[in-house]
Structures are given as structure tokens and as C-alpha cells.
UniProtKB/TrEMBL annotation:
Residues 1-18 form the signal peptide. This is M1 family metallopeptidase. InterPro entries: Peptidase_M1_dom (IPR014782), Peptidase_M4/M1_CTD_sf (IPR027268). Pfam families: Peptidase_M1. SUPFAM superfamilies: Metalloproteases ('zincins'), catalytic domain. Transmembrane segments: none annotated. One of its GO terms (molecular function) is metallopeptidase activity. Keywords: Signal. It comes from the Bacteria. Residues 403-559 form the Peptidase M1 membrane alanine aminopeptidase domain. It comes from Chryseosolibacter histidini.
Length: 738
């Protein structure tokens, strides 16, 4: 077979297999990597017919002492053993112990001495603050002491009798601890002091001994709390009574059950009005009322009671400084209240934006996942934080003293509120193990956050989660990077990786790989399957494929199991036209001229289209090409159809290791353009270099890959042909690359 005939095969096959391919199996399945499906978790990604999970219910009495900034509490835990296993002991989490003496965080922390460092960086080192739980007693339902043992941030309680499948047990714990000053220790839970008026804002979480998760995947959760990896918790019902100074206002997980005991008649009336106010928030406690409380500082006490059903945790914020507003939101058949609690230091920004952001989040997230099921969603303000709990989150965003603020502060505050309120869905409802797999809540949530921001705040330039926004991280120092499938405590670049990279991966999956409609159906299926359950990464991966009929193992492998990057290079574009049909057929011994396909071995590499098209010939098909087929193709008709067509051979290389779809923009001589999308499977035979032939009616002047920067290509300077462009769009493209 002569060389000219080989060109026909190039219309459908890749070149360069023998010379270029270094097979790495990027399209091999994840079967051996993911856990084997079973009766608890199926191969489709859905919970199995025998899926189970434990339940832990709490009844608590808490008192916050505003004089010495401490908490004293007692709880009764009712633990339901829904597993098929017999349990001889229970494990609880004592997360306040992260700062106790000789804790693992302190003893394993690393660092170095820096000259001229701020003195504040040593504040925690020299502090004599006594942190951690003081567990006073653990008792059974009859008041008899139960043996317990504390292992850093975990506590084991030995049971008097083994707890059999289907049984439950109630036991009590009494405890106390000193509330951490967040400005010194930087924790998620603690106090903020305001020296000008001598008052505090308390943002309180991880404040009670909480049950660990026991599941089908690893039995008891046993990862100590080291700070980065957050929480893994069972669902349950809560009844919590919180005693605070009589002029405090509390925002908490759940429904306030005794407003008549803790609110004034005016506040109750405003609160009731908010329940039917859908267009704007109702201010329940005004700024002037809160400012007056700052001065009077009542010494009497009040007890607030909150009930919450089917939640995985409980948190609250309390202060006499709080302004309080609320607004009803229509979500399906429910009307949850979007609420904000903030001091005067948060205004005017918080009054303008906070509850609006809560409302926007509930509406957009509900559309993409499940209808928000809880009765309230709260944004509480305190300094330099973004932290989430069921129905309540703590957020930053403080204007200057004169009330002015920059657009950047407004954007940051809106972003953090949307993100933290969004955590109600991931992981408070779709309840992954945060301590083991951060991207499943932070990354997935950051992705839906971006969808909400783009829809509800189109005037702001959002970048986290967009492909262009992750490029600097992706092409950065590999020694600082970890695959997404890495435990939180081993991650170095936490934000860019577990938040932004994971969000970007899902954004690309939605916008470029699967398409919005298909992705949204599969993503919603995942949310519905795993609402109020404990999904693992395999459940997410498998559900997304099961609900879309798209094999995505190559995508999960590249984005979640490696630190590879996308760096596609447009190596060369060759332009061909067919010789005159008559001369091609008559002249069987055509001489190969420079520029023909046969001259490829000469090393001549064209850099533009200035020399015009290279000519090539087709010949009549010999009988042996048909094998046993009796019919024959009309060779002359094929030649006639190709006559005058522009044929382009495009050669691409993959220098970053991450296989991704190929997006080609063709710019034509008549001023028009065309966008062509090729699935990532084009790399399935050769993961490093490919060639593909395109037949075009029009004459091409420019070719560009990934023109809209959809795939996080880390070097778009080599995405154009010709390499030197004189077109304004290409100039803008190159400017973005720099």
C-alpha cells in the first residue's frame, strides 16, 4: 500500500502510536480502587437494601457564665444501635480538648523562629489559659457511674451490658470548660471581646461531648481532632436549654420553644410578622435597642429552649450586642425563616446583605439538591471566621468604624455567608465524614456556592471554582500539592486544593464534560439518595455515573487521585487540498513533492498557512480492501465530494498528564468562526500525542484550543496556530495567559 493511501486512514485514526505513546492507563476503570459494593452500599452508588446508621438523641441543660466566660452543662444521650453489631463500649468526641495540655495538635505542630515576627504569634504559646473539657461524671440512667477513659479528643464509655442490635441506651455526662478567646487561639468556637463597651459575642460550638460515628465503613470513627479535618457525626433529635444573661439574644440550631419567657411582647410581635414577610427582613431587635443593652448589662438570667429534629450537631451564638432580623423564604411547601444576628459593628453591611444572602442560598441550593427541610437558617456575625453548623453559621464581614466598606469586603462577606449557609446541605444533610474527606463538603459546597453567586450576584466577579481561577495553583510547586483524595491533616494548600480545585473539577464536569442538564440530574440524584445519610467518595462517583450513563472514571482518576494538570499544546496544523480528480486517477505514480504527506519525515514543520495548502492524491480502492464484501464504494464520488474542500490535520500533545476534552475554535477567512468539542476519550489510545483530520468547507485562518479557558489549561500561550497572531481576540487571549 503506497504512502498516499495511508492518508485515508488518518481521517479516523491517530498517528504516532509507536513513537509517542507511553501508556499510563488513565482510561482504566476505578474498580480496583473503590471499595467493593455490598448490601450496605451498592455498585450504583445508592444506599443498599441493608443500609443502616446510628442515631444519637440529646437532652441538654447549658449555662453560659458571662462573668468568667465559661460553660457548664449536663446532657442525657440516648444512643440507638441500628447496626448489626454488638457494642461493648461507646466513643464520644471531646473537641474542646484540642487545646488542652499536651494535646496532639500542640505536640505535633511544626514551625520555626522568624525574626521580627508579630508578638501575637506567640500569644497562645505563653498563655496560662486552661482549655479543654472537665468531664465531671458519666452515669447510667439510674445515676450509677460508668467507667470512662479519655484519649486526647476522644472518650470511651464502657457499657454495663453489651448493646445488642436494635437496642438503645441512655446515659448522662456532666462537664464544664473555659471559653476560648478566638483572637488568641483562632478556634471555630469561642468568644470575641469588645473593649469599647466591655461586652462579648459568644459563638459556641463543639461545646458538649458528642457521639462519634459508628458505620459500616470503618466501625468507630477514630481520627483525632487536629484542627483541619472537621467533624463526623450521627443524626439525632435535640432538646437544649441555654441559660444566659437576661438581656442576651440567642440564635441557635432549631426552633425557639419558649419565646414568651425570653422575648418582650414587641419582639414577639415582630418575630411573628417576620414569618409572613417574604419581600424583605423584619428587624426584631433594633440597633438602638441593642446599643442600650450594651450599657445596662443586666445581671438577671433567662433560659432559652430550642428543639431540633434530625440534625447532626447543635451550635448557638449569644450576646447582648445582637441586632436580629428575619425573613420568610418559600421553599416548596415550607417557609423557613432566614435570620441574621449581628452587632452594630456589622452595620450597615449586615442589615443590607446578610439575610438576603441566606435567602438566596436556600433558594438556589434547594433547586439543585433537595428542598431545605429545616425551619430556620441563621447567619451570625463575629470576626474573621466562616464556620457552619446545622441551621446556623458564624461569618465575618465588618465595615470600618465609620460604616464604610470596600467592594472587596462586601464580596467576601456575601461569599462566606453563601458558603456557610450552603453547608446546611453539605455536610449537614448530605452528611459525609469531614474528618476524612474534606472535598466532599468543602469542595462540593464551593461548587454549588459558585452557581448561586453567578445567578444571584452577577455584578460581582467571582473566580473561585472557575477554571481560570485554579490555573496558578495547578501550575505551582508540586511539593506543596496533594491529590484531593488525601486526608485533611496531610493537606498543605488547604483552600486552593480542597475548596477551589474540587469546585473547579465539578464546574468543568458540569459545563464542559457532561453538560448542565445531564450533570444537574445526576447531582440532584446524589443529593436525594444521600440526604440524611453518610455518603463516601465512591457513593458520589458511582451515583454521578449511574444517573448520567457517562463513564467518568478517567475524570475522577485525574482530578481526584493525582496532581496532574491540563496542558494541551497545539503542536501543528497542516492544510491540505485534493489534487484534480482526473490527474490523481490517471497518474498512479505521482511524485511526492515537498509539503506532501510523504515528506513528513523531512523534519519540515510549518508555522502558518502562508505557503497555501499542500496537495495530496487519492487512488481507486483495491479489491483486497473490501475483504468478503461484494459491494463497492464509488471512489470517484468520494473524490468529487472532497474536491475543493479544505482538509486540516491537527496535532495535539498532552504535556500535563491530565486528560481532558479538546475544544477547538476555527476562525475562517470570511470572518466567521466555529467551536468544535471533542470528548476526552480522544486520548484513550495515546495519552500523550494525537492527530486528527478535519474536513472544512471554508478556508481557516486561525485555530485555537480552549478559547474560553474552560479546562484550566495551565499554559494557553501554546494553544494557537499560527503562533504569532495579529487578531484582537487572540491578543486578548494571550493577555489572559499572562
Amino acid at each position: 500500500m503506497n504512502r498516499i493511501l495511508i492518508f485515508l486512514l488518518a481521517l479516523s485514526l491517530n498517528f504516532g502510536w509507536a513513537q509517542e505513546n507511553k501508556w499510563q492507563g488513565k482510561f482504566e476503570q476505578l474498580d480496583q480502587t473503590l471499595p467493593t459494593p455490598n448490601e450496605y452500599r451498592t455498585g450504583s452508588g445508592a444506599p443498599g437494601p441493608k443500609y443502616w446508621q446510628q442515631q444519637a438523641d440529646y437532652v441538654m441543660n447549658i449555662e453560659l457564665n458571662d462573668d468568667n466566660q465559661s460553660i457548664t452543662g449536663s446532657e442525657t444521650i440516648t444512643y440507638h444501635n441500628n447496626s448489626p453489631d454488638v457494642l461493648k463500649y461507646l466513643w464520644l468526641q471531646l473537641d474542646q480538648n484540642i487545646l488542652s495540655e499536651n494535646n496532639t495538635l500542640k505536640t505535633t505542630g511544626t514551625g520555626a523562629v522568624k525574626d521580627s515576627a508579630a508578638a501575637k504569634t506567640y500569644a497562645a504559646e505563653v498563655s496560662d489559659f486552661k482549655a479543654g473539657f472537665n468531664v465531671k461524671a458519666v452515669k447510667d440512667a439510674a445515676g450509677k457511674g460508668l467507667p470512662f477513659m479519655i484519649n486526647n479528643t476522644m472518650m470511651r464509655v464502657d457499657l454495663p451490658q453489651p448493646l445488642k442490635p436494635g437496642e438503645k441506651i441512655s446515659f448522662g455526662v456532666d462537664w464544664s470548660f473555659n471559653i476560648v478567646d478566638r483572637s488568641v487561639f483562632g478556634q471555630r468556637s469561642g468568644l470575641e471581646y469588645f473593649p469599647e463597651d466591655g461586652n462579648y459575642i459568644y459563638a459556641i460550638a463543639q461545646f458538649f461531648p458528642r457521639m462519634c460515628v459508628y458505620d459500616d465503613y470503618e466501625g468507630w470513627q477514630n481520627k483525632q481532632f487536629l484542627g483541619k479535618g472537621e467533624f463526623t457525626l450521627p443524626f439525632g433529635d435535640y432538646k437544649v436549654r441555654i441559660t444566659v444573661p437576661g438581656d442576651h439574644i440567642i440564635g441557635a440550631t432549631g426552633v425557639l420553644k419558649n419565646p414568651q419567657d425570653v422575648l418582650t411582647k414587641t419582639e414577639i410581635d415582630r418575630f411573628e410578622k417576620a414569618k409572613t414577610s417574604f419581600d424583605k427582613p423584619v428587624i426584631i431587635v433594633t440597633q438602638s435597642e441593642a446599643t442600650q443593652k450594651e450599657k445596662t448589662k443586666l445581671k438577671t438570667k433567662k433560659t432559652w429552649e430550642f428543639h431540633a429534629e434530625n440534625v447532626r450537631d447543635f451550635a448557638f451564638a449569644t450576646s447582648r450586642k445582637f441586632i436580629w432580623d428575619a425573613q420568610a423564604v418559600k421553599i416548596g411547601s415550607k417557609t423557613p425563616l432566614a435570620m441574621s444576628f449581628y452587632p452594630k459593628e456589622g452595620n450597615p453591611l449586615w442589615e443590607q446583605e446578610s439575610t438576603k444572602a441566606v435567602k438566596n442560598t436556600l433558594e438556589v441550593y434547594s433547586r439543585h439538591t433537595i428542598d431545605y427541610p429545616y425551619p430556620v437558617a441563621i447567619s451570625a456575625h463575629t470576626a474573621s471566621i466562616g464556620m457552619e453548623y446545622p441551621m446556623i453559621c458564624f461569618n465575618f464581614g465588618r465595615p470600618k468604624k465609620d460604616g464604610t466598606y470596600t467592594p472587596q469586603l462586601r464580596q467576601g462577606m456575601i461569599g462566606v455567608i453563601v458558603h456557610e449557609v450552603g453547608h446546611n446541605f453539605f455536610p449537614m444533610i448530605i452528611n459525609n465524614d469531614e474528618r476524612q474527606t474534606t472535598w466532599m463538603d468543602e469542595g462540593v459546597n464551593s461548587f454549588v456556592q459558585l452557581i448561586c453567586e453567578l445567578e444571584r450576584y452577577p455584578d460581582i466577579d467571582w473566580s473561585r471554582g472557575k477554571p481560570a481561577g485554579i490555573v496558578n495553583y495547578m501550575k505551582g510547586d508540586k511539593n506543596l500539592q496533594r491529590p484531593l483524595m488525601t486526608n485533611s491533616e496531610q493537606v498543605i494548600m488547604f483552600g486552593p486544593e480542597q475548596y477551589a480545585k474540587a469546585a473547579t473539577a465539578l464546574y468543568i464536569l458540569r459545563e464542559t464534560v457532561m453538560g448542565k442538564d445531564l450533570f444537574d440530574k445526576a447531582f440532584k440524584e446524589y443529593a436525594q439518595r444521600w440526604a440524611f445519610k453518610h455518603p463516601k467518595p465512591a457513593d458520589f462517583f458511582r451515583t454521578m455515573e449511574d444517573a448520567s450513563a457517562v463513564d467518568l472514571d478517567w475524570f475522577w482518576k485525574g482530578w481526584f487521585y493525582t496532581t496532574d494538570v491540563n496542558d494541551q499544546t497545539l503542536e501543528q496544523v497542516k492544510w491540505y487540498r485534493l489534487r484534480d480528480e482526473k490527474s490523481s486517477v490517471e497518474n498512479k505514480n505521482v511524485k511526492v513533492q515537498k509539503g506532501d504527506l510523504a515528506a513528513e519525515g523531512s523534519g519540515d514543520k510549518k508555522t502558518d498557512f502562508n505557503d497555501g495548502p499542500q496537495e495530496f492524491s487519492l487512488v481507486e480502492t483495491k479489491p483486497q480492501f473490501y475483504g468478503e464484501f461484494q459491494s463497492r464504494i464509488d471512489d470517484k464520488a468520494i473524490m468529487k465530494k472532497l474536491q475543493g474542500k479544505n482538509i486540516y490535520e491537527v496535532t495535539l500533545s498532552n504535556k500535563g498528564g491530565l486528560v481532558m476534552p479538546v475544544i477547538i475554535e476555527w476562525r475562517y477567512k470570511d470572518g466567521t468562526s466555529e467551536l468544535e468539542r471533542i470528548p476526552a476519550e480522544i486520548w484513550r489510545i495515546n495519552e500523550n500525542k494525537i492527530s486528527k483530520v478535519f474536513v472544512k468547507e471554508k478556508e481557516v485562518t486561525n485555530v485555537m484550543i480552549d478559547p474560553n479557558m474552560e479546562t484550566a489549561d495551565v499554559n494557553i500561550e501554546d494553544n494557537m496556530f499560527p503562533k504569532v497572531q495579529k487578531d484582537s481576540k487572540f491578543d486578548q487571549f494571550k493577555k489572559k495567559a499572562n
